[in-house]
């Protein structure tokens, strides 16, 4: 019997017939998949055909917490959106911070399963366990920040909110889901799936606590882990001082900062868009998520120029890169404005910036007819960036509609898909695989398309002691980080805790909270099980080894300048080794023996 960590209840809402049911957590599944990402993916495999159209009524959206959400565990404020992604049809598990996850837990539910499609726009109001489906025609077409404000006014000023913006309503394939107005579940187009269900958002407010199985051991683990985080140079220092944007100068200094749609990997003007410059010129205050001792969030404002007076959250490192170096833009105010706009429209910033960079590449190469482009789309133009984001968010004109579908479809439309810096149609993030070998393997094998937070090898390859340019050992390194992150995401703990904590530390928190016996070895095995679970979904959806690759530019075009000049990524040197270490065949399919070992045989 579950004795702690979980509330033990799942809320199932059918939007088609407005039927609301409460179900019990499956204890066996909780032990095998923890919660959040793992448990949600198991539901998807049981209830959703991996071959459906992700924007069809048959798809489901799961909003899930983990057993550490709502407890005193450090950085335990995460919430995960699980569905079949709109961007590429792969399994989509998108994680966000803030306070929504713990608040949902405090209503008495561990997760919400959303089914069907509402006849007209609606939002959910969950107040101390009571559920209302409210009509939301008046909220449709409104930006995320205004929607957040209005939902609080209509429900309760202390409510925590989830919402989509106009991008999700218009089914943009790079739309995200926003929590509390500024914390994003980005990547994979999860916002489009929510929009396809005519769901504008969810507001939650609860007053229930979360019990833990062994309070004495749990608090010991809490104090120990908080102490470890305070002593780490990232979680206890740089992240609080400069936010994630501290990485701008760090990654650029090694020549791993993709620039000009990855034509290069060194941006000479990086200092102008760095975390240090952001702090000096734009920072209002730091911000933290629930129970966060790090406080890497930023609240900022633009204090000069044409966007003077605008304010909001961020930008984070990835957003600065996407709107900055990737588009060869050094105007920090334009970068910040693009970030604000994406938050309001509900657009994924990595995909949005990379898509604009792709458009600039197409434009400068003469691949886009002049009639398709309402203004010059040159690299380095902050004006072009901001106007492109507006077109994208509102889907104005031919270009706006194309931009809203991401870089792959944009480049494919103009006959040059090789100019999309994407894997499985999803744009890669702010680390160049040519300069950091392991992250390239992570991009290629990530179950949701190119992604850094599915296995953050950067912690070892750049911020640690592993040689970033060597291929040896990168397969094992990637697998280790992927398995750890899969388990971590399922607990409700933030990825940034892994800078100061290891699997042993997180397992001690999880075990004390739930009462489930779990050491580091078992915790990592659960992560491996979840990774393979996601892989099985993708195999059933039609993904094969050929999808585990990287953009042509990364494989064939050497870096031109900077400390990593001359480097390319030789993926094949690592891929076979990775499959072998995972216990998969050379075709990338888990072997019968591996599935038996992970207790997944019945799902093959």
Number of domains: 3
Poorly predicted regions are: none
Name given to the CATH homologous superfamily of the largest domain: Aldehyde ferredoxin oxidoreductase, N-terminal domain
Q: What proportion strand?
A: 5-15%
Helix content: 25-40%
Overall mean pLDDT score?
96
Describe this protein's structure.
The two termini are 29 Å apart. The strands form four sheets. The chain has a six-stranded mixed β-sheet with strand order 2-1-6-3-4-5. It is globular, with a radius of gyration of 22 Å. Helix 1 crosses helix 2, helix 13 packs parallel to helix 16 and helix 14 packs across helix 15. The protein has 604 residues and is of the alpha+beta class. A hairpin with a 2-residue loop joins strand 16 and strand 17. The mean pLDDT is 96. It has three domains: 197 residues, Aldehyde ferredoxin oxidoreductase, N-terminal domain (Aldehyde Ferredoxin Oxidoreductase,  A, domain 1); 182 residues, Aldehyde Ferredoxin Oxidoreductase Protein, subunit A, domain 2; 170 residues, Orthogonal Bundle (Aldehyde Ferredoxin Oxidoreductase Protein, subunit A, domain 3). Helix content is 39%, strand content 13%.
């Amino acid at each position: 019997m579950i004795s702690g960590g979980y509330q033990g209840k799942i809320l199932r809402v059918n939007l088609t017939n407005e039927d609301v049911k409460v179900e019990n957590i499956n204890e066996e599944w909780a032990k095998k998949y923890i919660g959040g990402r793992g448990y949600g993916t198991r539901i998807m495999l049981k209830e959703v055909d991996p071959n459906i159209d992700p924007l069809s009524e048959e798809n489901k959206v799961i909003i899930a917490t983990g057993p550490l959400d709502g407890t005193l565990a450090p950085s335990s404020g995460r919430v995960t959106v699980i569905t079949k992604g709109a961007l590429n049809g792969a399994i989509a598990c998108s994680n966000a911070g803030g306070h929504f996850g713990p608040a949902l837990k405090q209503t008495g539910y561990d997760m919400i399963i959303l089914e069907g499609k509402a006849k007209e726009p609606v939002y959910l109001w969950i107040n101390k366990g009571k559920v209302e489906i409210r009509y939301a025609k008046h909220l449709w077409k409104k930006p995320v920040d205004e929607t957040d404000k209005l939902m609080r006014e209509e429900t309760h000023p202390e409510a925590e909110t989830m919402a989509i913006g106009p991008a999700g309503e218009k089914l943009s394939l790079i739309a995200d889901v926003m929590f509390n107005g500024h914390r994003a579940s980005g990547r994979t187009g999860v916002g489009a799936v929510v929009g396809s269900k005519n769901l504008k958002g969810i507001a939650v407010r609860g007053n229930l606590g979360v019990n833990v199985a062994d309070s004495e051991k749990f608090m010991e683990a809490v104090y120990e882990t908080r102490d470890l985080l305070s002593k780490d140079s990232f979680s206890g220092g740089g992240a609080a001082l400069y936010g994630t944007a501290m990485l701008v100068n760090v990654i650029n200094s090694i020549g791993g900062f993709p620039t000009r749609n990855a034509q290069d990997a060194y941006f000479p003007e990086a200092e102008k868009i760095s975390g240090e410059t952001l702090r000096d010129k734009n920072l209002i205050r730091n911000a933290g998520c629930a129970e966060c001792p790090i406080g890497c969030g930023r609240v900022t404002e633009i204090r000069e120029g044409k966007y003077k007076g605008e304010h909001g959250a961020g930008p984070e490192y990835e957003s600065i890169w996407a709107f900055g170096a990737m588009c060869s833009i050094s105007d920090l105010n334009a970068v910040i404005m693009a970030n604000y706009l994406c938050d309001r429209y509900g657009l994924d910033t990595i995909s949005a910036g990379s898509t604009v960079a792709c458009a600039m590449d197409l434009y400068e190469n003469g691949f886009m007819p002049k009639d398709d482009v309402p203004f010059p789309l040159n690299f380095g133009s902050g004006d072009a960036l901001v106007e492109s984001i507006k077109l994208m968010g509102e889907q104005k004109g031919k270009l706006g509609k194309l931009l809203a579908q991401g870089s792959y479809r944009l480049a494919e439309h103009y006959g040059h898909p090789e100019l999309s810096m994407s894997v499985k149609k999803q744009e890669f993030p702010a680390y160049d695989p040519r300069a950091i070998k392991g992250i390239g393997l992570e991009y290629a094998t990530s179950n949701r398309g190119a992604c850094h937070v599915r296995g953050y090898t950067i912690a070892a390859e750049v911020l640690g002691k592993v040689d970033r340019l060597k291929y040896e050992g990168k397969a094992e390194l990637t697998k280790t980080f992927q398995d750890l992150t899969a388990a971590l995401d399922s607990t409700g703990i933030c990825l940034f805790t892994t800078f100061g904590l290891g699997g042993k530390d997180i397992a001690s928190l999880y075990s004390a909270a739930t009462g489930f016996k779990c050491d580091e070895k078992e915790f990592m095995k659960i992560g491996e099980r979840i990774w393979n679970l996601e892989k099985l979904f993708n195999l059933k959806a039609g993904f094969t080894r050929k999808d585990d690759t990287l953009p042509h530019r990364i494989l064939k075009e050497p870096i031109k300048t900077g400390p990593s000049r001359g480097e390319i990524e030789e993926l094949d040197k690592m891929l076979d080794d990775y499959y072998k270490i995972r216990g998969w065949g050379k075709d990338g399919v888990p072997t019968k023996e591996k599935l038996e070992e992970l207790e997944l045989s019945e799902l093959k």
